[in-house]
Structures are given as C-alpha cells and as structure tokens.
Write a structure and sequence with these properties.
By secondary structure, this protein is α+β, with helices and mostly antiparallel strands. 44% of the residues lie in helices and 12% in strands.
C-alpha cells in the first residue's frame, strides 16, 4: 500500500497545480482526487487528502491471490449482492463479467452454466459443477432477490439486477467498489475483482487438480495462458529448492 497525504492551508500562497501545470483551487483538486479513490477531509483552516493506493502485491503485477481465510473474512463483510457475485467467482473461477451476466436459468442445483454468449471472445459454453457452499450462498441471495424485487425471479431475470434498472445487470464498478472498501477495512492489499478468479484457480492447482481440468473450467484458450494466471507461492518454491540434489 502506498499512502500520500496532502494538506492545503486556506489562503495559502502555493495552491496545488492543475493537470496542465497551472494553479487550481484545493477544493477542485480534492474533488478530482475523490474520483480516483482518494479520501479527503477538510476543516475551516485546512483540507487534507489521503491517497491510499491498493498496489498489486504479486511480483508480476497481477491481482493478489487470497487465502481461504481471507476470502471468508471478505465475504462476511460484503453487502448481499456483491457477496453473491464474489461467491460465484470464488467457487466457479468465473470472470466477474460472466458472473454479472448470469440469469437464473443458468443456475441449476447441479451446475452453473456460463453460456458462450457471455464468455470472453464468445468461445465456448462452460458448465461448472455446483459447489455446496455456493448453492447455499445463492439460495440465500435468491430470497433477498425476492424481497427486493417483490416477486419470484423468472428464468430470464438477471441473478444480480441493477438497482436502478432491473432490466440491466449490476455494474462491475459497484462490485469493485464494495470489494475494495471491505479489503481496505481489513487491510488486505493488492486485491481486485480479478483476485477471485486467480485465487480459485491457484487453490485448485495447489491441490493437484490437473491443468487440463482447470482449463475446462476457466475457459482459458490455452494451457500457456492458464499457467500465466496461476500464482506460485514462496513456500512451494522453497520446497522445490530443498528437493534439489
């Protein structure tokens, strides 16, 4: 995490510079910072902005992978709808965009069906066996769905409808905002919505699931692309080094 703090004294002689190098008022500058995730405070005498940047903790600049304990802690703090999206990505290794585009007809007791029409490059439909924990999460979410929409869901309804327009799905930005907010509170670094897919695939790989099986679930176009996606833990590398000779 990188933290920068800026303090502007009201009436000060050196206002912050604008994007073109010219001066701008501190209020305008702080408003701009808020758009990119900077927390700002102000009083009668000064304004302070604290910029907390969630840096990627993986050495290759990828989203961080999370432990089961971290995933559980994050899930507990998320609001209901983002938690449902989080759970689908965690237990199916689906992309966030795929999870958001799911309709209730894609949720079956035995599997989650990701139609090729919502996959990246529209390559192939994937059917992922239902994890019992995911089924429990989705059962709970379905009840919340009924309460918020005041009716039972139809097969063609989005699993995660947009709060303003149920004919559209929830936005990725809404999920990302909720996830980053919880991770900030829990001091979990380097997390993005991509972390869920990476964490799921890495955990399965660590448990010895063959790459070909993972590829059939993840939808990666090649084993090479899948391997780039997986995180190799330092403990695994140490164990390998100790096995040399």
């Amino acid at each position: 995490m990188m933290i920068f703090e800026f303090q502007f004294v009201r009436g000060g002689a050196n206002p912050p510079l604008g994007p073109r190098g010219g001066p701008c008022c501190s209020f305008q500058w702080l408003a701009g910072l808020a758009l990119i995730g900077i927390r700002a405070t102000h009083s009668n005498h000064h304004r302070t902005a604290t910029y907390v940047k969630m840096v990627k903790s993986n050495r290759n600049g990828q989203a961080a992978t999370l432990s089961p304990e971290q995933l559980d802690a994050i899930a507990e703090q998320l609001p209901a709808a983002p938690r449902g999206v989080f759970s689908i990505c965690r237990f199916t290794a689906a992309r966030v965009s795929e999870a958001l585009n799911l309709r209730w007809e894609n949720i079956l007791p035995s599997e989650v069906v990701i139609p090729k029409t919502i996959t990246k490059k529209k390559m192939k439909t994937r059917a992922i066996p239902m994890n019992p924990r995911l089924w429990e999460e989705l059962t709970n979410w379905k009840q919340r769905w009924r309460e918020t929409q005041n009716r039972d869901p139809d097969k063609g309804d989005y699993v995660f409808p947009n709060g303003r327009d149920p004919a559209k799905h929830m936005t990725r930005q809404a999920v990302d905002k909720a996830l980053r907010g919880v991770c900030s509170e829990l001091d979990v670094l380097g997390v993005s919505t991509h972390s869920l897919r990476r964490s799921a695939l890495t955990a399965a790989s660590d448990k010895g699931v063959p790459l070909r099986v993972l590829q059939s679930i993840s939808g990666h176009s090649s084993l090479e692309m899948l391997q780039r996606y997986l995180d190799v833990k330092d403990e695994a590398k140490r164990a390998a080094a100790m096995a040399f000779g």
